[in-house]
Structure formats: structure tokens, C-alpha cells
Write a structure and sequence with these properties.
Layout (H helix, E strand, L loop, with lengths): L1 E6 L21 H5 L26 H5 L4 H10 L3 E7 L11 E9 L7 E4 L3 H10 L4 E7 L4 H9 L6 E10 L2 H14 L4 H4 L13 E14 L5 E4 L1 H6 L9 H10 L1 H15 L3 E10 L2 E8 L3 H5 L6 E7 L6 H21 L1
Antiparallel strand pairs: 1-11, 2-3, 2-5, 3-4, 4-7, 5-6, 6-7, 7-8, 9-10, 10-11
Amino acid sequence: MLRALGSGGLRPAVSQRMDVCGHASAGSMLARLFGTAAGTPPPPPAAGDVTAAAEQPGSEEERAASLPAEQLAKALLAGNARGQLTTIAAGDPGTEESKVHSSVVSYLSPRGEAPVVLLGAGPQGVQHLANLGESAKASLATGHISPSWFIQRLRSTGWLPRRVALLGSLEPLPAGEVKFAVEQARKACSPAPGLASLLPGNDGTMSGLVGYRLRGITQAVYVDMTGKQHSVAPEELDSCLLDPLALCQHDLLAELNQGEEWQAQLQLFCAAYLGVHASEVLLTQADRLGFTLLGAPAQQAQQAQQGQQRWRQFRIGSARELRGRQQFLELLQQMRAEVAAAAGAA
């Protein structure tokens, strides 16, 4: 039923801002975005680690239980509604660093399609609009940039938020098409209240919003939690399957990471399925093939308290594909029953 896959490489604490900043040339926007990559390379797994496997490239079984990079990128794109937009500063004769403008904006991509970027009437939106009057080139980066409690917990483990960045051109949309896109996004996100709450116009107004579609995507990059970049062909991103758990990520992360009962269960799963006694656990990803955990092994608790946090990543795969949030929760309930039955028989 289940495949437990451990990634025993221990990661040093690193930090990275998601800010999009860079040269005025569009081709360098993504290079600058990920130019200060995630610190030093991770060390190899320590000898004797339980279920240890190299993170890169990983075992055949581990890769089989994980989504390919293009599907991970598409799930991140669809499962979020805010990202960092970078446009080329209009008529700015200054330094290379000052020739771009970046800010967090709302966008819509509930099916993982080319995103609709929404710009407001505030100073940030006005600057982007002025830039787009001279050059349509832009980059959009998104991923685990919210909620703040999740980002703080993830960074405290020494790992980085996963993210995806796209480089293309923004084309203006008629007001009617923007309104339709917002309505369709609300409909698609209705079973996912966490994501729905991030959509613009929740107050019933769309006043002042201008929409652009990011078309002609020339470059796409997916960055995993180690900071490693994975180039994704734009045509593969467009045509690949959207994971059925993509839209409900916010809700699953909140339910399983903030509930004391589920936190205790995740620790039991680490012990029962992985043979690892974890003092703390964080669920970082759920998809149709299983889920990914970060765990702080109990024997390392003292080191963690001394600021030397060394969390490990584990992957627990499902033998059958999960078709939605309900099936994922049913899998966890089955795992809980199996653990309870095993404890009773002991």
C-alpha cells in the first residue's frame, strides 16, 4: 500500500530571499532571481542513516514516487494566487540594478495555464503599467510565499521554499475577459478555501484592476527545497497533467501542520513507516503520488536547540494515485488505523 522513501542527506541552515531583482535584459531576470542559490551543496548522507538515499539524483524508487519537475512547477503555479512580478523600468538611465521594478501582485492560473496578472491602481501597479508601456517583457515568480507561518517554520528547518519562475511577455486583456477569468478562478477554487481567500475581489469589487496574460513564455525554472534549479520546457509545462491536489495545498498544509492531533500522527508515521523517531515534523507537499515530510530526528534535538538544526526529508508514496483531497485524507486515516493496530498487537 505504502512506499516509505527517506532522504538522509542533512542540510545546513541557509536563507534566500525570493525577491526578483536583476538586469534590464529580460534574459537575465531569471538568472538574477536564482543567482544567489542556496548556499553550499548539501553533504552526503551519513553512514548508517535509516532509509538513507542521496537526494540528488535519488533512487529509482524515490524518483518513481515523486512528480516530475514540470508537474511540480504547474502545481505550484495553479496552487497560488500571488507572486512576484518583475518588469523593466521605463526610461531609466540608471544602473543595471535600478532598471527593474518588482512587487507582489495577484495572478490567476487555477488550471496551471498561462497566468493572468492583475495590476491595481496603487503606486506599484502604476509603475508596472508605465514599464509595460515601453516593454512587455516580464517575469513572474511564485511558490510557497504564503502563509507566513509556514515559511517561517520551513526556513527554521534549514530548507528553502519551493518556487517556480516564468519569463515571457505580458499582453493586455479586455475588461470583460479579466472579469471572466476572475469568476472562473473563484469557481475552480471553491473547494479550496485557503486558495480562494487569496483571490482578488473578495470584497465584491474589481475596481481599478487591469489584467495581462503572460504569453510567449520563453523560460521556466522550478527550484526545489535544496535550492537546485530545474529547467522546464515551456511546452511541457503547458501540456503536462495538473496534480489533483494542487489547489488544496494551503488547506492541507494548515490542517496537518497546525493541528496538534495530526502533528502527533505524523510523528508516529515517521516512527512506524520510516523507523525514525522525530521530535518535530513538517508536511511540505502532498500530491497524487504521496507526501513529503521534513523531520528532526529526536537524537538531534539537542543540536537543534543549539542552533544546529539538521532536519531530514522523507517521502511516503501511495501505491495508488490519489484523486483529490478526500482520498488523501482517507490515506492518512488508513495509515493511522494501521499504526494503531500494530501498536495494539505489540
